[in-house]
What does this fold into?
Amino acid sequence: MDKLKEECGVFGIYDPIGENLSSLTYFGLVALQHRGQESAGIAIRSGNAINYHKGMGLVQEVFDSHKLMGLDGDICIGHVRYSTTGESYITNAQPLVVRFRGGSIALAHNGNLVNAYEIRNELEKNGAIFQTSIDSEVIANLIAVEYKGNIKEAVLSTLKQIKGAYGLVIIFNDKLIGIRDPNGLRPLVLGKTETGYVFASETAALDVVGAEFIRDVQKGEMITIDENGWESFIYDDTKRKAICAFEYVYFARPDSTMDTKNVYKTRFRAGQILANEHPVEADIVIAVPDSGIPAAIGYANESGIPYDVGLIKNKYMGRTFIQPDQKTRELSVKLKLNVLKENVEGKRLVLIDDSIVRGTTSKRIINMLREAGATEVHVRVSSPPVKHSCYFGIDTPSKKQLVGSSMTIDEICELIGADSLGYLSIDGLVESIGKGYDRLCAACFNGDYPMPVPMSGKKYIFEKM
It folds into this structure.
């Protein structure tokens, strides 16, 4: 589908009394599968060693009961990945496990560093050897270099040097460490089981493993967990809060709560505001499933136009397969979505989607609806036009491939073949989330990045040109 892609999801659990931590981590990763489908991995501390298994594919493809039984211990972390920095190879799968003079570190990272290239060059000049092409290995190497007998000081020294977005979970000896970047761009939450503690990218993963939500990890906060419980340390409180607005638009599960805001309710509210900003006469409101459904229900609620099902999603598609030619690409849309002809034939439709990136999928969906007998298709988008690239862990196309950057709304409307097109305003998006401009990163919409970013060349410097 023509959507932006998240980089990854992380999960970690500390429980010296509990059993089957690798199985709980497996369940947590399945709950986070929407955040990355290219690779999955689990690392667990067993005595003085860290054992791990990782592979390409979905969580259920990488792990089975036999592999999970071989991963036994008391501190465990997991990772699901969609590649941005670094290509999609098994060597780039996480968690990373690095052995050095202080012991072993296992690290899982969600996000992207904007200064990884400079740090990596410096480390290589001093003899460091890298086995992957991902920026996460820069973090692991820095911790190893900075370690002087105190892991907390080594991590803090590392955090002073890296810039960008990160939600990190780390195993070191008897500790589980969770860290969120100084702007809070990438999400991370803390929860509690009966006998231990859990970190996860989203609260939905806590629900799945039966953990009670404690709170969000704060921006610029490091939390360490060991036999004494959990300890918080704010390592940087100078940056403005800037959680990614696209988490609310598309990435996060609707049953998750991010920084006190329920994702479903923010999407529902976005649909209500969209109905007021771009009203239209129509017979039914339909959604591009699944991410467009909450906003479509909100649009119908506010406009008084009935909500109905117009598109059926094939939930068993799994990963996107190779699409070698135009005809196959068009067929892939029909494999993922099919029109419920009986509901749309002879109807004027309001079609709600959460975003338009290149416009190719929107055009195919509208063609399918017209072929099924829809008399009008009015497209309403529950986010503003995507005009700028992301540098913080979301795989956006280059700016010239973003139709929101290169075309006017009227031109996009003509491109996708809609009868009319309306986007949610940035003010409307901010209102729907309920946080204010000063607590969000909406740079993909307005270009207002919360930190300096590389404005030339490739966004992700380790990828092939």
Observations:
- The domain at 5-242 is CATH 3.60.20.10 (Glutamine Phosphoribosylpyrophosphate, subunit 1, domain 1).
- The chain is about 30% helix and 25% strand.
- Residues 69 and 398 are 43 Å apart (CA to CA).
- The mean pLDDT is 90.
